[in-house]
């Protein structure tokens, strides 16, 4: 046995002398960022004669190899099989391929194949290869914060669960997302799955269930804005207006509409009883995108307390290895205040179509409010009790709507506000007085009377 070992070594030496040796390795690379210039370096050692060097881009899990560079020593030429920015720089003991601006699509494995002639014959080629995985990172492209399940109404007597959703798109790998409140990092309780219903957020550690016994007597008090009116001996704006508010002749020279000061009722809700700070729940999902990036949706959920959360600043921040500093998006939870109402036409006449529109607010409102229109003391022109939306349309207004008052209620989970406006309807010279119906259509009553007269005449003749 001891005699065989020197023979084995001698055989290997002879084999190496005949075939030659070849070692190939690719220098490792750290993750790169989209847009960076990258150079792939293939190092090889050999004592044989060079035959060829081929670079491959491997796709589809290794089933497809795309040739991106070739050096053929037989013809002493090199050829590129990729775009013109793929370029060989050096070929001595190292072959390089340079990518001036990497893209997400460049992410993946690459292989360097080197072939040499064996020393026994030029017909045989000895091959060796090395491989590397190019990890291309992409920073997030956009970040935004929205409120889930909005627009939603304001609840004065029951706590509501509230959810902020932070959407981060375009990152690879998936970024780390976290929330802050008023600049302070929020301690969260992670959830493996998003709660199916709102009750899933209730936790004894956060707050007690809000039964009526948990409310103080503020729910029986009127808002401060109403108390101010009563102290002055006036009528609160939320009550029905006086009946028979048909304007006299002097109103013909007054503004066409009367804007009633708003009534803010956001202070009318009870003070929720919170024994401890609310617990914030956190859940996130990763959604793969076709370009290789990931969309992250992070949700922050808690039991809303309008008295504390109104005017609170929430920010969603993102950390990513491709970013030098965090990205962020901010929202401030604000109840609606001071709706700006516009009525067109400004001088409505009998038979006109009147549009009453909420143009905006005195402040930035978040989340998006919902709008409800009602007619004080009566139903709307179409017979409905209320109308949802930013705009109320009154088709062919009749003279009977002169002096009618309309209430716009704007509300979000942080609070509610009422704004009133009064409709003044002027006479239409094209429509004689008393010839329009309740829908503003002329001659309807005359048609009904004529039809009734014909029916009575026919009945009398038959009898």
TrEMBL record:
InterPro entries: Ig-like_dom, Ig-like_dom_sf, Ig-like_fold, Ig_sub, Ig_V-set, Nectin/Nectin-like. Residues 1-20 form the signal peptide. Residues 35-128, 339-424 form the Ig-like domain. GO terms for biological process: heterophilic cell-cell adhesion via plasma membrane cell adhesion molecules; homophilic cell adhesion via plasma membrane adhesion molecules; synapse maturation; trans-synaptic signaling, modulating synaptic transmission. Keywords: Cell membrane, Disulfide bond, Glycoprotein, GPI-anchor, Immunoglobulin domain, Lipoprotein, Membrane, Postsynaptic cell membrane, Repeat, Signal, Synapse. SMART domains: IG. It is a lipid-anchor; GPI-anchor. It comes from the Eukaryota. One of its GO terms (cellular component) is inhibitory synapse. It is found in: Postsynaptic cell membrane. Pfam families: V-set. Involved in synaptic inhibition in the brain. Selectively regulates inhibitory presynaptic differentiation through interacting with presynaptic NRXN2. Interacts (Ig-like 1 domain) with NRXN2 (via Laminin G-like 1 domain) in a trans-interaction manner. This is Immunoglobulin superfamily member 21. It comes from Podarcis muralis (Wall lizard).
